[in-house]
Amino acid sequence: MFSLTNKVAVITGAASGMGKATAIRFAKAGAKVVVADISDGSKVAKEVGGIFVKTDVSKEDHVSNLMLKAVSEFGRLDIVINNAGIGCEVGAIKDIHEKDLDDGLSVNLKGVVWGIKHAVPKISDGGSIINVSSYAGYAGALTYGTYVATKSAVIGITKTAALELAPRGIRVNCICPGTLDTAMTHEDEGSQIEYAVSQMIHPLGRLGTAEDGAALFHFLASDDSGFITGLSIPLDGGMSAGFGLGVIGQLYTIATGQEIE
Question: Any catalytic annotation for residue 147?
């Protein structure tokens, strides 16, 4: 079940975090893996028995070369995970800077568009393309306007690609993670605050992990999900259903002066 034997997968942003966890999981499931990242992913590639292709996904020629290298090395292409992305400055929409918006769009949106565009001529019929949006792109988020703009666009392009590629049986989906407990979540004081808040607002009472993302990628990449396409799937510990008990409890205490028993 969920075998990826004899399948070839390209994974962007695979040098660390969710991309790395996905590369490891895919290799264990039998896939040949192409590790792509702007950072050095050669150790990950060696660990999974694949190859590393240095790639800046904001540059179309880099992504075109990535797909060519995958087919040249392994003879086919079956799965593309457009995972590479960057954060954006936090602030109100009235304070958005053009450069920050341009940078976010170049990586978070263009990287997905180029990944789809250059996969299409090479990916096998019945293949799977999976993009990464965000819970913020799925639901919106105060002070994250720039990031939301880039990630909401990924949801739209996913739906359009799913329709265009359906005649070939190529499925296109995207995942929308909440806050994941990765190195990025701990890199500065602001991230530490987000970490603490996210534990409260996720109803399951914890942050997601890189392995949680890898597991969802694995299902969507496998033939077992062959009737699923065009979806944007929250990976958010229940946030899309409502806030967690930690937040509700605090609001209840503020309003009543009592704690929820």
Answer: yes
